[in-house]
Design brief:
The longest helix has 19 residues, at 128-146. By secondary structure, the protein is mostly beta strands. Helices cover 8% and strands 43% of the residues.
Length: 292
Amino acid sequence: MMMVIKLLMPLFLLATDQPVRDLAVKVFPPRPAQGKFLLVQVEGAQPGDRVSGEFAGRKLRFFIDERGRVRALTAVSWKQEPGDASLVVTVQPPRGDPVIQGVAVPVLEFEFEKQELKVNPKYVRPPKEVRARIRRERAAMKSVWRALPSGRKWRGSFVWPRKDEICSTFGAKRMFNQRLKSRHFGVDIDGKTGDPVLAMGAGRVVMVSDRYYAGGTVVIDHGLRLFSLYFHLSEFLVEVGDDVEKGQLIGKVGRSGRVTGPHLHLGTRIEGLSFDPLSLLEFDFDDGDARP
């Protein structure tokens, strides 16, 4: 299933007669839910056209994939109200006025699960001696999101970093020790300490760090402001600056940081927005639609 929106194109006055081009915008999935991945595809654009856009106020970074398709990745915020969200696409030909088209994308409500967890009290009320460390780690992570965007590094679909039981889903409303309220901005994949963790896709390692809450952390920049995050690792097998391939071993499962047991926390972010990694892993970039 797909949503197809026709873009009404003016007749461009070129040196030679050209027919009006038939452009269309396709949105996958056509009715995305809160917190989920979304792909925008523009068909009919010609060489020399500049394609840009925004979804729900966030910039779209279009690229041309291996099959010549003009595409951009984005996501729906978990806080986005159900109903129509604004998608704006601009096609600027080499000569003539730009075409700007607004599209209403219907966003579905998603029911996030609730969890009550018991952890070491120091992760609910951190001791004074570690609060400066926590501030430094948060600042370091923010600097990753503020860095200049890099070119697209991934190709094709993404792969699971490991396959096991999903023990916590994205967006879960959490209560730690019946006191601390929190949101879970990733998915937890069960495992044993030492189990392998693979890179979801090709990219460059931009963080390798032992952090207070997240424990052993690796962050990979896949390009165009798309990142994957791997938390609670027991061992690092990459360094900052390494270029990694899809499916490459980057670390091992652990129970470092704020955890109730060994597992991998997997996160994904685009343009600074956290979204459900499963919605990206389940997307078939070759066919352009979600896997059955």
